[in-house]
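During the reporting period the student researcher (J.K.) took over the structure-prediction task from the postdoctoral fellow and processed the backlog of single-chain submissions. One of the processed entries is reproduced below for the supervisory committee.
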Amino acid sequence: MLNSKNSMWPWLGLAAVIVLVDQITKQLIVANYQLGDSTYVTSYFNIVRAHNPGAAFSFLASAGGWQRWFFTGIGLAASVFIVWMLRSHSGQKLFAFALACILGGAIGNVIDRVLYGHVVDFLDFHWSFLSGIFHGGHFPSFNVADAGISIGAVSLILDEILRMRRSK
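J.K. obtained the following structure tokens:
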């Protein structure tokens, strides 16, 4: 099945690339930045070092520590489910792409939770028009794993929209 047109291995390879890039970039941040350090890049983008013990948008970040293992468990369970889904749907390119991106992101953030007890974030985008929503107009900082999860989620929505159009 390794050379099969419907093999899940290319998708697992994509997930592995996302994990690898995510972990390399996080290691560079941890090695070169202290918590809270920031480097100006453009008028709307900084490199920062932030820690997120919670989930997306710091959900449950101040929950007292139990959330570390809760989100680790969710990430591991999601990863197992995604691999199972890839075995069945590897021939559906957009769907499998979405799953692979989410898988890579989930594993990348699980590694952080196990190693550090929090997720290392470093991409800081900010625009003044966001100041009514986010403090100082700064969108919550994120990382490569989060970007993979977001790209995967958007791809899942697009896949569903296209599937619904085809069924009409």
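The committee noted the following: Helices lie at 9-32, 66-89, 93-116, 144-167.
J.K. will present the remaining backlog at the next meeting.
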